Amino acid sequence: MASAVTIDGKAFAAGLRERVAKEVTKLKAEQGLTPGLAVVLVGEDPASQVYVRSKGKQTVETGMNSFEHKMDASVSQEELLAKVEELNADPAVHGILVQLPLPSHMDDLAVIDAIDPAKDVDGFHAINAGRLMTGGKGAAAPMVPCTPLGCLLLLRDHLGSLSGLTAVVVGRSNIVGKPMGQLLLQESCTVTTAHSRTKDLPAVCREADILVAAVGRPEMIRGDWIKPGATVIDVGINRIEGEAGGKARLVGDVATAEARKVAGAITPVPGGVGPMTIACLLANTVTAACRQAGIEAPDF
Ligand SMILES: NC(=O)c1ccc[n+]([C@@H]2O[C@H](COP(=O)([O-])OP(=O)(O)OC[C@H]3O[C@@H](n4cnc5c(N)ncnc54)[C@H](OP(=O)(O)O)[C@@H]3O)[C@@H](O)[C@H]2O)c1
């Protein structure tokens, strides 16, 4: 039986980090510029702590400055906004990331919109979302959200031109589904964004040359929802507890074993989209530093 090609996000991300590190070395030597990324973590959410540690480690490994700011879960929104203002004004900080989710007494969107759009390396600020939608170039180019950017880099690497392909994105969150749809539209795909109210989702998915799953439901997308030969990008990261004290494991939003028999190519979970997110954050930090210094940003 045919088996899909594995799109190796882990290897691609390692290559991207190398390219980032080379650009950082060049910026230091030729411009005296060391890009800096500040990450703000509010509270003690264990998963967020792991992400923040990993981001800090990889930032330093690529030669950039990493600034970590931990704040107590009880901090007020005003105190967090004051921290964001301080980082907006700091010339050593080129990228600012406020780790989500924030404690429930805070308004995520208000905090994100307080970040200087030029330093918004997550690409979640309304200005960057708008620029992504309007296709801004040059000085008006958006910072692109890291996870969909990672998916796009994998798709371009695997398929070359995406022009004219039918793409279905399952999920419409501000951080993955919506920006993914915009990026695919910019690549001249014909895009459908599906969600929990979509009628006959399997039939919609079966139309897709490119199927992106960003749902958060373990193995929801079955093999017979996939068009033969399609390229499948599985963004989902779902933790399944082991039975009877067995080890927990991660699964995606796609039933991989079934999907492999039908798809042309697929990203694994783990080792697909996951490693691309932080690698794209590092790339975005270099891009932000270059734009702030008036230097042409490298094309990653
Ligand atoms: N690889 C990475 O680095 C990375 C980064 C971010 C997220 N993720 C993972 O990606 C997944 C999605 O994340 P997210 O933040 O976008 O999630 P989210 O904000 O919870 O959004 C989930 C989306 O899926 C849709 N949905 C839920 N149930 C559905 C169903 N039965 N049929 C069709 N659509 C359905 C929702 O539709 P409605 O809008 O109608 O409710 C919503 O638009 C999660 O597993 C997350 O862990 C991975």
Q: Overview of this structure, please?
A:
The structure is a single chain. The chain has two domains: 30-125, Leucine Dehydrogenase, chain A, domain 1 (Rossmann fold), CATH 3.40.50.10860; 146-275, Rossmann fold (3-Layer(aba) Sandwich), CATH 3.40.50.720. It has helices at residues 9-31, 46-61, 77-89, 108-112, 126-134, 146-159, 177-186, 201-205, 256-260, 274-293; strands at residues 5-6, 36-42, 65-71, 95-98, 166-170, 190-194, 210-213, 231-234, 238-240, 249-251, 265-266. Helix 7 (177-186) links the parallel strand 5 and strand 6 (190-194). The model has no long low-confidence stretch (mean pLDDT 97). It has 300 residues and is α/β, with parallel strands linked by helices. NADP nicotinamide-adenine-dinucleotide phosphate binds at residues 147, 170-173, 175-177, 194-198, 201, 214-217, 235-238, 273-274, 277.
Sequence-ordered SSE layout with sheet pairings:
Blueprint: E1 5-6, H1 9-31, E2 36-42, H2 46-61, E3 65-71, H3 77-89, E4 95-98, H4 108-112, H5 126-134, H6 146-159, E5 166-170, H7 177-186, E6 190-194, H8 201-205, E7 210-213, E8 231-234, E9 238-240, E10 249-251, H9 256-260, E11 265-266, H10 274-293
Parallel strand pairs: 1-11, 2-3, 2-4, 5-6, 5-7, 7-8, 8-11
Antiparallel strand pairs: 9-10
Helix pairs in contact: 1-10, 2-10, 6-7, 6-10
The structure holds NADP nicotinamide-adenine-dinucleotide phosphate.
Low-confidence stretches: none
Shape: globular
Total count of strands: 11
Termini separation: 36 Å
Number of helices: 10
Order of helices and strands: EHEHEHEHHHEHEHEEEEHEH
Radius of gyration, Cα only, in angstroms? 19 Å
